[in-house]
Amino acid sequence: MSTPDDGPGWPTEKLNALRLGQPLTVEVPASGPRRRAFVTICPVITPADRQAHHEGWKRADHAREYRLTHWDYDADQIDGFDYDIGAVLVQGATATGEAELTAMLQAWNLRPDQFLYPWQTDDPT
């Protein structure tokens, strides 16, 4: 799904999810012991997306903006209600369009195939 000129490509199902407004996330190395860190891609939801949702469907958008955030959390807090206690925003950025998103991920040393849906895990059980 990639060419030599565009670097690593997006798996089709993940690119479609982003186009439909579904966030994707990946766990990355944390700043230290007893910490966990994640990078999340959140597609920016527009009034047209809200209208589609109100009508019962999802709108695909190839020219979406995406917010990327890299958060570092206290591992002891992450499963509770107050998961953000001790959280640190490592970096954040906004990408306009899929090409800029891919370039930004490359600058952050991440690959599109690393990302999972928030409910998806590597553990099949």
What does this protein look like?
By secondary structure, this protein is an alpha+beta fold. It is built from 3 helices and 4 strands.
Helix-strand layout with pairing:
Blueprint: H1 12-19, E1 24-28, E2 35-43, H2 47-55, E3 65-74, E4 88-96, H3 98-107
How much is the radius of gyration in Å?
A: 16 Å
Helix content: 10-25%
Unreliable spans: 1-7, 121-125
Terminal CA distance: 29 Å
Task: Please report the total strand number as a whole number.
Answer: 4
Note the total helix count: 3
Biggest sheet character: 4 strands, antiparallel
Q: Sketch the topology as an H/E string, one letter per element.
A: HEEHEEH
* Strands side by side in the biggest sheet: 1-2-3-4
The average pLDDT value, as a whole number, equals 86
Structure at a glance:
The protein is of the alpha+beta class and 125 residues long. 22% of the residues lie in helices and 26% in strands. The chain contains 3 helices and 4 strands, in the order H-E-E-H-E-E-H.
Write out key terms for the chains shown.
single chain; 125 residues; alpha+beta; four-stranded antiparallel beta sheet; 3 helices
